[in-house]
Amino acid sequence: MKTIVTTFALFGLVMGLMAQEKFKVSGIISDEFDEPLPGASIAIAGYENFTPADFNGYYEIFLEKGEYTFSFSYIDLVHEIISLYLNGDVVINVQLGKKIEVLEEVFVSAIRVSKESPVTFSNLKKEEIAPRNLGQDIPILMNFLPSVVTTSDAGAGVGYTGIRVRGSDATRVNVTINGIPYNDSESHGTFWVNMPDFASSTESLQLQRGVGTSTNGAGAFGASLNLLTEGISEEAFGQLSSSYGSFNTLRNNLKFSTGLLNDRVEISGRLSRITSDGYVDRASSELDSYFLQGAYKDDNTLIKTLLFGGHEITYQSWFGIDAATLASYRTYNPAGIQFDDNGNFEGFYGNQVDNYKQNHAQLLWNQKLSDTWSTNIAIHYTKGKGFFEEYVDDWYTTNVLFSDDSQLNFIGRENFMLNGNAITSTDYIRRRWLDNDFYGTVFSTSYASEKLDVILGGGYNKYVGDHFGEVVWARFSNNSVYKERYYDDTSEKTDFNMFSKANYTLNEKWKLFGDLQYRTVGYQANGVDTGLVDDTFNFFNPKVGITYDFDRNNNFYFSFAVANREPNRNDYENGSPKPERLNDFELGWRYVSEKVQVSTNGYYMSYKDQLVLTGELNDVGAPLRANVGDSYRAGLEIDVNLKLGTRFAISPNIALSTNKNRDFVFQRDGILQNLGNTNIAFSPNVIFGNRLTYSPKENLQISALTKYVGKQYMGNIDSEASVLDAYSQTDLNIQYVIETDAFIKSITFSGLVNNVLDAKYVSNGYFFTFDDDFSNPGTITTVEGAGYYPQAGINFLMGATVRF
């Protein structure tokens, strides 16, 4: 075994020393429990290569006389550095200490997991995000994780973006920030455009696929995503970042930290501004954001106060285009179109924008009570207010959309006579407002011993939202008042949950996991679109699992989880929805060594009354859903990280799945038909991602990132008219860091070429059907149609960050 290790030793160094007297440095590397660490790394300062320990944790290196600094490390364990003068054989046995932990991770300890838990997950740290963080939204930065599909309305990753995981859309991906719910309480959606450049204030994120662990907010029906905001900096710094790219995309931000004052207090913050014309015509974005944090820590206490938010003004680009326009004019945007009374095109309305502000306040307090007990409590408040402005063209609305929106009675006006003509409809400009408040608390108590970890916690959150519409201008109007409201309704939602979860170590091989959550939700609404709603839901969500550590490298797990979830506001708008239920089975294997990490899992997700996407959109571009009875998702996910020597690393992942509605019933040509098992909308059977990284020098990194998404249907009836073709894209990312000992500590240059092969692809769309009983009197014909959101061809972003 020792000869095998020797072949992996510092080859260049050994060759240079063969003709000289050499001394042996050897030993065993183990953890704090004296368990050997196979594949642990032994590096020597000044030399590029490193030596791995063998399967017994043993290593040996032959060196000439001299002074050396050795670094011993193993994945996420605390590194050990030893310096000595070598003039003879020496044995250095090293015990690596506990895992490296970010102090702030205590705030997400109740909802995050590690490889000791029977949960399928991926982690993304700020160091991995940074090379590509040039102004695009967080979903785009997550694009290459397993089972992830991302979308961009404007086509270039700035503005409105979305994410799907295992075919589940953003309303089914439960998002928390420091353990606090972020999904909109009513729509369940996640609007990243309200938090532009938030990646620049993110320490790490974890994406749990499937049901995951108990968390706050709407239950996860595809995945859970929890973000941890930036940690405390012990050293003071200032940082300026600027980037520019295609479509006049410009990002500037300023960050600072006071460092730890008196080893206790830190104040830090960020200001950002992002502007972009967008790939799609007029799909412009003006995005401002801020992040301010005050922190206090001592040996037993960590308190953080956070204020963050954003203001976005984006030109609407959620209408999509049909197939013919996609082929002839990919960037066309119909938003704000204007015609005269004879149907002659006049132009586009210049202020057809979405204008929204959102501000967040969080108070986080962790208290260590003893070596085994600690508590977490958070209080939060979010204020959101804004509108989207829309020009309603009378001719276009009546003759193309066949809508009643332009009629006077639709906006609460009466018909009247003008110069002897009856005025029943008009061009007008409206603003549709949302003014909401969201506040509450989340809390947990943790107990940790050698064999048992227990967390007890819960949360109470309340949402109050006002929805109202104003007419700010009309071509024809009778006795109207400026900004007179033509609808005005309110909604309230309360969400309370309690949970207990435990990890119990039976022995050195077996660990048990249990998680019980009770959740009650109350929702009241009185909108014209929703009708009168007064519903209360009570859910019990149990989870159990087992983990088996075959050896120090191999880990197996199995889990079963139940999740229940309430309908959202759009579901009430679309009919009389039922709550949905999910039974999730996960079986996985993980292999971890210094050079190779493999995560493989199979899953089976069985749904009752799943609210699947129908493919249709409502009048503000939001996807509509409907209950489908029985359905399931089953698949295999493989995620690999492989170091190829010291300069290359490759990280491929693949997800293979089948996603079916059972005995799907659909009315076609006026006849109710059972279509059998059909594909669930927006659920591709193949998703592949890969990252190949080359580091010729320590301060230079070049990465090629590839994504392939297989064919998917945009509806649930397997219609060829609803097919979204398979597509692939490849991005090229470069980062170069210059470090100095001067006032300027470092300068980082970053470059990103998106879609370097200039693929013409579409990542999202919509599908609709309607019954036509006018073309052939006496018959009903089902007509199908689709819309598409084209993505940009080859485009670039480049930037520089100066840290001082």
SSE order and pairing:
Blueprint: H1 2-7, H2 11-17, E1 23-30, E2 41-44, E3 50-52, E4 58-63, E5 66-73, E6 80-86, E7 90-91, E8 94-95, E9 120-125, H3 126-129, H4 138-141, E10 148-152, E11 161-165, E12 173-177, E13 180-181, E14 202-209, E15 223-229, E16 237-245, E17 249-257, E18 265-276, E19 285-297, E20 301-315, H5 323-328, E21 337-339, E22 345-348, E23 353-368, E24 373-392, H6 394-399, E25 416-418, E26 421-423, E27 428-448, E28 452-474, E29 484-505, E30 510-525, E31 533-549, E32 554-565, H7 569-573, E33 580-592, E34 596-608, E35 611-617, E36 623-627, E37 630-644, E38 648-661, E39 665-668, E40 671-674, E41 678-679, E42 686-697, E43 700-709, E44 712-713, E45 723-724, E46 727-739, E47 746-754, E48 762-772, E49 781-790, E50 795-803
Shape: globular
- Low-confidence blocks of residues: 1-19
Beta-strand percentage? over 45%
CATH domain class name of the largest domain: Mainly Beta
CATH architectural designation of the largest domain:
Beta Barrel
Beta strands, count: 50
Distance between the termini: 48 Å
Whole-number tally of structural domains? 3
| Overall pLDDT confidence | 90
Q: What does the main sheet amount to? A: 22 strands, antiparallel, barrel
- For this structure, the quaternary state is single chain
Computed CA radius of gyration, to the nearest angstrom: 29 Å
Number of helices: 7
CATH topology grouping of the largest domain: Maltoporin, Chain A
Assign a percent range to the helix content.
under 10%
The SS-based structural class is mainly beta
